[in-house]
Amino acid sequence: VPMFEKMDDQLLDAMCDCLKPVLYTDDSYVVREGDPVDEMLFIMRGKLLTVTTNGGRTGFFNSEYLKAGDFCGEELLTWALDPNSSSNLPISTRTVQALSEVEAFALMADDLKFVTSQFRRMHSKQLRHTFRFYSQQWRTWAACFVQAAWRRYARKKLEESLRAEEDRLQDALAKGGGSSPSLGATIYASRFAANALRALRRNRTRKTRLPDRISPILLQKPAEPDFTAEK
């Protein structure tokens, strides 16, 4: 697990002593979205599917596959690292299902809390970035954030393009003079109308095809793990 690679041998040994071997059969569920997370799972063999609907939001769906070397239940790590966390376990944001027979090691909530009490002294920005990169929650949130930014950029470019076409149309009309527009003005007017119509049709088709799509930016940003030492 990349987040633990900077641990010293003594701390790793303490964590390994707490691990419990577990076996999941084909099609069984490790955890369901909305259920409390009571273990962090380190996969040794098999394949799992992890899915989130962002709390049941209509039109939102994200899925990933997990295999040997992957882990799940990182919500529990954030909870365990918080010295002020309550006794209530964190709620799973994903449903994890075994697609084949899965062998794994489980680290239970209380054991993880004990290990992370020693882990907090390892304050490191690199550790923070590593957690974000490998966390499914953070990866999903980042992908949605990038999609939302791209949509804003594309909408801004479209508006700028239509505005430029409109400015050229006005210039052509002004240069044409008289009551009848020039050939250039007519061409620009035609282009502007065609581009505006194309944009409207594109937006209408998109809304018809995805009527209930939720803006990606509505996905809640995951909690930041606290790696600072307890005061």
TrEMBL record:
<keyword id="KW-0406">Ion transport</keyword>
<keyword id="KW-0812">Transmembrane</keyword>
<dbReference type="InterPro" id="IPR000595">
    <property type="entry name" value="cNMP-bd_dom"/>
</dbReference>
<keyword id="KW-0813">Transport</keyword>
<feature type="domain" description="Cyclic nucleotide-binding">
    <location>
        <begin position="3"/>
        <end position="87"/>
    </location>
</feature>
<keyword id="KW-0407">Ion channel</keyword>
<protein>
    <recommendedName>
        <fullName>Cyclic nucleotide-binding domain-containing protein</fullName>
    </recommendedName>
</protein>
<keyword id="KW-0472">Membrane</keyword>
<keyword id="KW-1071">Ligand-gated ion channel</keyword>
<dbReference type="InterPro" id="IPR018490">
    <property type="entry name" value="cNMP-bd_dom_sf"/>
</dbReference>
<comment type="similarity">
    <text>Belongs to the cyclic nucleotide-gated cation channel (TC 1.A.1.5) family.</text>
</comment>
<keyword id="KW-1133">Transmembrane helix</keyword>
<dbReference type="GO" id="GO:0034220">
    <property type="term" value="P:monoatomic ion transmembrane transport"/>
</dbReference>
<dbReference type="InterPro" id="IPR014710">
    <property type="entry name" value="RmlC-like_jellyroll"/>
</dbReference>
<dbReference type="GO" id="GO:0012505">
    <property type="term" value="C:endomembrane system"/>
</dbReference>
<dbReference type="Pfam" id="PF00027">
    <property type="entry name" value="cNMP_binding"/>
</dbReference>
